[in-house]
Design goal:
The protein has 350 residues and is mainly beta. The protein has four helices and 19 strands. The longest helix has 7 residues, at 22-28. It catalyses: [protein]-peptidylproline (omega=180) = [protein]-peptidylproline (omega=0).
């Protein structure tokens, strides 16, 4: 996990920010190629007929007939219950395939919109193999919603929820190409070419920027301006370096408070006390981080208790920020810094 990190290292794959089953981890964070190995779970067993117990040795079982899947041009034949307080019930014309990934709105939400396919979302969902009608995963079975960054999922999941609103229940039919393609995912019974059906309840999503009341900071702090939504930090000439960590909201959000063991999605910019901007992730996808994997633990700790939607100025003495310096970019030991962080999303981490 890679947040507020003055380093050229690539971001590590984010772990799920919520209580999730092992299947979720394998399915949604796995490569689209999936698992192509032969596995008994690839072909679900066929239930025995009701008279199989009385069959004589001379009787030869007939082959199970193959049902050709229906190609759906839309999702009008898929019916889903609307009560979002309970796991949905689904009626669909299995087996089916779709030629393009498509979304049907079951319940229209009135919250903010999932901004793009790199956003972090919190959802409840059910995943169904449209060839068999079998559920291969459900967040409902784990007892809690899950939160994750859409860039870590199969592409059809992200494209299916983007531009839809918090409070919505969606039916998303995902083509094989947008799911697990020619390799399938035999561990959970998904074969090459299988269409996937997800029923997704969008419970929350990240903000596109800070949102709240502007706060006038006291004198004696770095100055923060803004250009095209990106904060710029200026260290006034002669301003004394900090002797302790100081946290100053510049925009006071009203959302969920960041907990000490939570996950955080944010944008940040950081400057050394001599005015060198050494980190800036604006213009990229927001970065997700968690206390347990935070590279800059002191900065994460400073943000604990701040609310989602806030823009926060954090100043740290060198003895806290970089007591041993930093290799890439090169920062000397005991370099004092100022960082501005936009808190866009927080959730329980496990």
């Amino acid at each position: 996990m890679h947040n507020f990190v003055p380093s050229s290292r690539k971001r590590r794959t984010i772990r799920l920010m919520g209580v999730a089953s092992v299947t979720v981890l394998a399915l949604l964070l796995g490569a689209c190629g999936g698992d192509s190995g032969d596995d008994a779970s690839t072909s679900p067993s066929t239930p025995a007929s009701s008279d199989s117990a009385t069959a004589t040795p001379s009787e030869t079982p007939s082959a199970t007939p193959t049902v050709e899947p229906t190609t759906l041009g839309d999702l009008s034949t898929i019916e889903v219950s609307q009560d979002m307080s309970v796991e949905p019930t689904i009626t669909a014309p299995y087996p089916f395939v779709v030629d393009q990934t498509m979304t049907k709105v079951i319940v229209e939400g009135s919250g903010r919109t999932v901004p793009d396919t790199s956003a972090t979302v919190q959802v409840q969902y059910v995943g169904i193999n449209a060839r068999t009608g079998a559920t291969f995963d459900s967040s409902w079975s784990s007892g809690s919603p899950v939160a994750f960054q859409l860039t870590q999922l199969i592409s059809g999941f992200g494209s299916g929820v983007v531009n839809h609103t918090v409070g919505s229940r969606l039916a998303i039919a995902i083509t094989s190409d947008d799911g697990y393609g020619d390799s399938g995912y035999s561990t959970i019974g998904i074969e090459a070419g299988d269409t996937l059906l997800f029923i997704v309840d969008i419970l929350d999503t990240e903000l596109s920027g800070p949102s709240g009341e502007t706060v006038t900071p006291p004198d004696g702090l770095p100055l923060v301006s803004e250009e095209n939504g990106v904060p710029k930090i200026t260290i006034p000439e002669g301003l004394a370096e900090p002797t302790a960590v100081q946290v100053q909201p510049l925009i006071q959000g009203s959302g969920r408070e960041l907990g000490s063991s939570d996950a955080l999605t944010s944008h940040a910019v950081c400057t050394t006390w001599d005015g060198n901007e050494y980190y800036n992730d604006y213009g990229e996808a927001a970065v997700s981080d968690a206390s347990s994997g935070s590279v800059h633990q002191a900065l994460f700790n400073a943000l604990v208790g701040q609310k989602t939607g806030s823009r926060v100025l954090v100043t740290m003495p060198g003895s806290v920020a970089y007591p041993n310096g930093n290799r890439t970019p090169s920062l000397a030991a005991n370099t004092s810094v100022a960082c501005v962080v936009d808190i866009l999303f927080t959730s329980t981490y496990s």
